[in-house]
Specification:
With 492 residues, this protein is an alpha/beta fold. The protein has 16 helices and 14 strands. The radius of gyration is 23 Å and the shape is globular. It starts with a helix and ends in a 7-residue tail after the last strand.
Amino acid sequence: MKPLLHDALVCLQVAVLVYFVMCNAFLLLLLASSALSMARHRLEAWHEGRLRLLGSEAAPRISLVAPAFNEALTVSQSVRSLLTLSYPQLEVVLVNDGSSDSTIDVLRRDFDLVQVKTVYRRRLHAAPVRAIYRSTTSSGLVVVDKDNGGKADALNAGLNVATGELVCAIDADTVIEPDGLLRMVRPFLLHDGVVAAGGTIRAANGCTIRGGRVIAARAPRGLLAGIQAVEYERAFLAGRLGWNRLGGNLIVSGAFGLFRREATIAAGGYEHATVGEDMELVARLRRHARDRGLPDRVEFIPDPVAWTEVPESLRGLGRQRDRWHRGLADVLWRHRAAIGRPRYGTLGLVALPYFLLVELFGPVVEAAGLVGLVAGLLTGTLSWPFSVLFFLAAYALGLVVTVFALVLDECTYRGYGGLRERLRLFGFALLEPFGYRQLTTLWRLRGLVKFLRGRTDWGEMTRTGFTVEPDAPAVPPGPPAVRRVAGGTSPA
């Protein structure tokens, strides 16, 4: 073997080893921070006055903004579910984003909508609004009918119309816990300077859902969905919860997040030309506040506040991870000027560098490490015993993080029920490194390449949805009937 090639392989292997050690050292820091944050969460006392506040008309008004496009078959059930959430001051803003089916007609019929003449303040850029309606039967419902402009455009139109002090953007497939809003508003009452808050989102695949509510929380049965459920547990309870104490939360899930409306509008609302609009908004909110000397606190609560369907096909999962990585790359590029800047505090000095070096370049290093491993074994620069020990160490650490997340899940007010369900999740974690990990690395690499080539499209999105149980009664003119998240092809 040529000395130059030998030296290059050794340098690559050492670099990957150092990267592995540094990443996992920071991961252990996040785990410790997560444990402390969970302890604080459990010990924080809700004063009786605050509980009375949340049950009174003095509670901060929340506007739920829900975009809809060609959802005539399900829109009425979705709206009814939102209107029954436990919160005293709730406004539901349904934005019909230029649907080509009968979505607006169904809404007019089922909620007795009447067009209102009101001044529409276009504080955020959005496609033209055709009409604004209010329901004569549900006082908290506002429907905005507008030209098609995409998800971010619809959310901006909803923000223009919303009247709540806080706004919550939700995805169409999100199932919200009945008291999810009460829990999500908690950080805004307990801490000063909170501009956004997020909570744990769990995989709904395998759960039984009735009336838009999860009545039986069970781990997914399919392997692909099950491993994703484990990923969600780790990402939220061993990741975002840990960023709380460090002050570096940069992601509020687009499926269900709560924001201060005026701060969101002042920062410019949702960006149209990105596939990572949720993360981009949080980064811009925080930079906007820091540039003006304002608080920029973003809080995460460990309680499960919403459930979402995860992909059960390789094709759908690949598209999702591809899109997520393009979104991450786009956000980091847009906010590259904040990386390493002390004026942005933890955001600039810790969070953004972490997402750049660990999350964005992680798949590049993993792929390089795999190439170096194979080449090292073939050329003799790596010994088999060392390689096996290294793999076992990485495997064991991954299991430790998973077990840690499952233990923290036990501390939340509602997790996957029973020891059997947790053992099922642990079984999925045992299988994760064998094929699944390599596929997600490949998809993330593909997303990075697409970003570098200028691809910004979302790609085709199809969902299995929630199927009606065989013994469920016909759907009445009220909340949705019993639904079970089933298998099939359902990219998230």
